[in-house]
Amino acid sequence: MLENYLPILIFLGLGIVFAVAPMALGAIFGAHKPDQAKNSPYECGFEAFEDARIPFDVRYYLVAILFIIFDLETAFLFPWGVALRKIGWFGFIAMMIFLGVLVVGFIYEWKRGALEWE
């Protein structure tokens, strides 16, 4: 039973070693010379001048929704196109329902003005 899982365990072990070893070596052998400039808070090279808890403009969320719409569409259309002959009409109708939901989201984005850049 163990011989079936041994390659997976070796792969996981090597993955952990390759992830942890560079961080450990950097922490051990890296230069530790903190000064005032390195320890100061920064954002885009200058001191923060507003509160971090201000509400975001709705366009940030609309752009995120737009990304999800097109990302999901492309992620699911390629495998669907490859397997369309095997899945038949059921797969075709399911994808049309999926694309219909994405079109509703796209129309919502359009009506909210996410496609208009200033």
Write up this protein.
The protein has a single domain (2-112), classed as Methane Monooxygenase Hydroxylase, Chain G, domain 1. Helix content is 73%, strand content 0%. It has helices at 2-29, 36-39, 58-82, 84-112. The longest helix has 29 residues, at 84-112.
Unreliably modeled segments: none
Distance between the termini: 62 Å
Question: What amount of the residues lies in strands?
Answer: under 5%
| Biggest sheet features | none
Our count of helices gives 4
The secondary-structure class comes to: mainly alpha
Order of helices and strands: HHHH
| Helix fraction by DSSP (H/I, runs of at least 4) | over 70%
Q: How many β-strand stretches?
A: 0
Radius of gyration: 25 Å
- Return the CATH class: Mainly Alpha
User: So, CATH architecture?
Assistant: Up-down Bundle
Instruction: Give me the oligomer status.
Output: single chain
Number of domains: 1
CATH fold title: Methane Monooxygenase Hydroxylase, Chain G, domain 1
Average pLDDT taken over every residue: 82
> Which outline best applies?
flat
In short:
The protein is mainly α. It has helices at 2-29, 36-39, 58-82, 84-112.
What order do the helices and strands come in, and which of them pair?
Elements lengths: L1 H28 L6 H4 L18 H25 L1 H29 L6
Helix pairs in contact: 3-4
Descriptors:
single chain; mainly alpha
